[in-house]
């Protein structure tokens, strides 16, 4: 079976391939690199699930293959659950040049007066699988944690340098990629999705 | 009777004095200008009511006079109710130089992909009165509306140029100060507070 992962980032393939294999699904994983005419799908929905479905539907329709897409971000208690679906573009125009850095600086500034007991946050990932026949499966993964006041660690990306998972003392930027995958919201969502796919097949 | 308005902005006095007079409360309204040693009260609470009470309590304790304080801001549906209590410093470090302009630019960018039917928002104001004997009265005012994509009008401040109240076609920056006071969240909160004060006296 062939599955399209709705991303142009080939680095994401090995993780999905390993997760599918662990779930007993033998599949060839393609990316959008194999479909140069695939549509760009803007992430305009107000929820992670909505955006993941939007992308998976468009790519399944275009490729006529099972399509997997995900959307993820950081949900901060003190910010009413934001940056949420806006995590990658939270700083808007002020992120030009280095969006990742500006997004994180902005969240740190917005929480400047927030004491430790109110710095709860979670990484959330929604993964969606859409089959050409219209079948849709959605899975969500959540990693609970809290936000530091200063960056620590060089791994990961985005908000990783200030995010400490529950029960951990290190930030997700201080974990190895393998350690992070084992506990991450993205890992959880994709493993759940793979399990559901295995049951369907 | 003398009342302290917990602000250093003398321009806010005429509005409160007029509202108190309308409610039948005859009071001399002072500002913090009359109390140079009054403490600076950081707005660290996660709610408007919390911040208004924080300020009113501190000023009533310091002056031994009835103290009135308010906190207000913009609550945007699509941003999970934010900027909320962070309205005046939403852009953090990116607002240096012109915080008002940067805050509004940032909200416009964050809503860039948000269609008209999801652009609901409201101005919220909490006003608190604290008496030296510990009595506390809180009132909240809300002005429902929606956010435009571009600025219109030169009056007001903050988010006024993109905010259109329900049932209006103009932004609050296109209204005269008198028109805005008549419908505004701040006007509603202060009139409610004045009415409660009148009943207490």
From TrEMBL, chains A, B:
Any one GO molecular function term: XTP diphosphatase activity
Details of cofactor binding: Binds 1 Mg(2+) ion per subunit.
EC assignment: 3.6.1.66
Residue numbers binding Mg(2+): 71
Protein residues bound to substrate: 7-12, 72, 157-160, 180, 185-186
Gene Ontology cellular-component terms listed: cytosol
Segments passing through the bilayer: none
Catalytic residues of the enzyme: 71 (proton acceptor)
Keywords: Hydrolase, Magnesium, Metal-binding, Nucleotide metabolism, Nucleotide-binding
Top enzyme class: hydrolase
InterPro entries noted in UniProt: dITP/XTP_pyrophosphatase (IPR020922), ITPase-like_fam (IPR029001), RdgB/HAM1 (IPR002637)
NCBIfam families to which the protein is assigned, alphabetical: RdgB/HAM1 family non-canonical purine NTP pyrophosphatase
Subunit annotation: Homodimer.
Function as written in the Swiss-Prot or TrEMBL entry: Pyrophosphatase that catalyzes the hydrolysis of nucleoside triphosphates to their monophosphate derivatives, with a high preference for the non-canonical purine nucleotides XTP (xanthosine triphosphate), dITP (deoxyinosine triphosphate) and ITP. Seems to function as a house-cleaning enzyme that removes non-canonical purine nucleotides from the nucleotide pool, thus preventing their incorporation into DNA/RNA and avoiding chromosomal lesions.
The name this protein goes by in its record: dITP/XTP pyrophosphatase
Source species of the chain: Nocardiopsis algeriensis
């Amino acid at each position: 079976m062939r599955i399209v992962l709705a991303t142009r980032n080939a680095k994401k393939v090995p993780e999905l391939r390993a997760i599918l294999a662990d779930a007993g699904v033998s599949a060839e994983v393609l990316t959008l690199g194999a479909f140069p005419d695939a549509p760009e799908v803007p992430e305009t929905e107000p929820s992670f699930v909505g955006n993941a479905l939007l992308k998976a539907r468009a790519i399944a329709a275009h490729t006529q293959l099972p399509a997997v897409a995900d959307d993820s971000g950081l949900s901060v208690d003190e910010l009413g659950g934001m940056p949420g679906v806006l995590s990658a573009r939270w700083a808007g125009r002020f992120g030009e040049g280095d969006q990742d850095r500006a997004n994180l600086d902005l969240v740190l500034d917005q929480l400047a007066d927030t004491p430790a007991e109110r710095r709860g946050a979670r990484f959330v990932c929604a993964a969606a699988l859409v089959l050409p026949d219209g079948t849709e499966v959605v899975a969500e993964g959540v990693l609970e944690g809290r936000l530091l006041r200063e960056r620590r660690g060089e791994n990961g990306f985005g908000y990783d340098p200030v995010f400490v998972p529950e029960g951990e003392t290190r930030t997700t930027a201080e974990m190895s990629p393998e350690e992070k995958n084992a506990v991450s919201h993205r890992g959880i969502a994709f493993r759940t999705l793979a399990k559901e796919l295995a049951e369907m097949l």
